[in-house]
Amino acid sequence: MTRTLAMTGATGFVGGATLRQAVEAGWHVRALTRRPQPERPGVTWIAGALDDTDSLARMVAGSDALLHIAGVVNVPTRAAFDAGNRIATEHVVAAARGAGVARFVHVSSLAAREPGLSDYGWSKEGAEGVVRASGLAWTIVRPPAVFGPGDTEMRDLFRMARRGVVTAPRGRLSVILVDELARLLIALAADRDASIGAIYEPDDGRPDGWTHGDFARAIGRAMGRNRVATLTIPPALLKAGGRLDPLLRRDRAKLTPDRARYIAHPDWVVAKGACPPVEVWRPAIDTERALADTARWYREQGWL
């Protein structure tokens, strides 16, 4: 019998990879979308939005599990973060409870560990609180930096590496390939035992993560450069850039004050012991190989 999976965020970077793997794994997906989408085998597109309770009810109807991937990462105000993350999660949880969809997998962020650092982290921690209090059979996943084909966030690092010089903040980070994260989310949707009530922080398996410089040099190797110079950006300069970019690019700004505070934090490494149990998931693709595949995809698409 075909299992049915409800999904928010299916048209995004992480959601797109997860949607593809869910269909390949035999799920029928009921996916929320704001804009019309082409027909796709194994997918029922549900027109609506996270603040539209009727469309959420249609999405969850008859579903065995729900993956809540959608959220906001770069909006101008604290209220907008709250609406796009915490309040939106309240609506999705209410829909799941109303339809009797007990299995609920929520995609959060490592930023939720530091809610006082940024409005983004504050809103993601608030969304986690909603899930923990939901009464559902929930699992929370806090991905670190996600990369892979189709990603627009790390593309600038590949562009800089191609030129031989990469600017980077101080500190360390963990990373995960988008297809690896998607594989975890699909495994959790089917899990009815080991992961209930757990908060996981998955990564590529590299002990203690990467320094930003080491990761930049790995991207350089993926781009065919054996030597890449890294220029470290002090936190004060990052925060100054966060104030300047919105003045210059307004709504198109990538570096806001909120995001600058987040990026300047020195420790975005997953916590020891927070990885999913090996019987559910373990990383399987080497990051250096994944970076090379990502660089190849960028070239093929003309994104560099």
What does this structure look like?
- Helix content is 42%, strand content 18%.
- The chain has a domain at 4-147 and 175-203 and 270-284: 3-Layer(aba) Sandwich (Rossmann fold), CATH 3.40.50.
- The mean pLDDT is 94.
- The strands form four sheets. Strands 3-2-1-4-5-6-11 form a seven-stranded parallel sheet, sandwiched between helices. The protein has a three-stranded mixed sheet with strand order 12-9-14.
- 45% of the residues are buried.
- By secondary structure, it is α/β, with parallel strands linked by helices.
- The CATH topology of the domain at 4-147 and 175-203 and 270-284 comes to Rossmann fold
Shape assignment = globular
Per CATH, which architecture of the domain at 4-147 and 175-203 and 270-284? 3-Layer(aba) Sandwich
Low-confidence stretches: none
Query: Within the largest sheet, what's the order of strands?
Result: 3-2-1-4-5-6-11
Number of strands: 14
Cα-based radius of gyration, to the nearest Å: 19 Å
Our count of helices gives 10
In the CATH hierarchy, what is the class of the domain at 4-147 and 175-203 and 270-284?
Alpha Beta
Largest sheet: 7 strands, parallel
Helix-and-strand structural type: alpha/beta
Run of helices and strands: EHEEHEHEHEEHEEEHEEHEHHEH
> In what range is the share of β-strand residues?
15-25%
Could you report the average pLDDT, rounded to the nearest whole number? 94
Helix content: 40-55%
Ends distance: 44 Å
In the CATH hierarchy, what is the superfamily of the domain at 4-147 and 175-203 and 270-284? NAD(P)-binding Rossmann-like Domain
